[in-house]
Amino acid sequence: FQVITGGHYDVDCRLEDPDGTVLYKEMKKQYDSFTFTASRNGTYKFCFSNEFSTFTHKTVYFDFQVGEDPPLFPSENRVTALTQMESACVSIHEALKSVIDYQTHFRLREAQGRSRAEDLNTRVAYWSIGEAIILLVVSV
Q: CA 10, 105, 93 angle in degrees (round to 5)?
């Protein structure tokens, strides 16, 4: 997960298994990653809390990656070496997975930048309105 907008960019996060046992608990984190293997079937709960910052709304990005990718060539369960075409497909597949990760990272950075720019634009607009009012009062 990663906090995109709001306050000091921190939230509390908690993950519980179907029995209610806490698997992961962190306080006031800007971003983090947690990997685990589910020990049983059921509904796992996660909660992002903003109790310590009641006036600031926050936007949180989170991503689930469940299991391993299926094999590129499922019909061929063999122990022999890959052909040149198969090995090229595997390397392209790995490269595309890293491109997806980079794109996600850049989209998050763009969302943060957009939020800061819109906040700055709002503040400049209010400041300009205030200055216009002051000029009007002084001129009268």
A: 140
As given in the structure block, the two tokens for residue 105 are 């990272």
Tokens of 97: 């997975």
Tokens 């597949």 locate to 93
Cα–Cα distance measured from residue 107 to residue 115, given in angstroms and rounded to the nearest whole number: 12
d(CA 61, CA 108): 8
Same domain for 82 and 53: no
pLDDT tens digits along 33-66: 888 888 888 888 888 888 877 777 888 888 877 7
DSSP label of 51 = T
Residues 103 and 56 both lie in one domain:
no
Q: Do 51 and 28 share a structural domain?
A: yes
Residue 82 neighbours by CB distance under 10 Å: 14
113, 52, 35, 98: CA torsion to nearest 10: 0
Interatomic CA distance for residues 34 and 17, integer angstroms: 14
Q: What is the pLDDT of residues 69-86, one digit of tens each?
A: 766 666 655 556 677 887
Query: SS3 of 53, please?
Result: coil
Boundaries of domain holding 103: 75-139
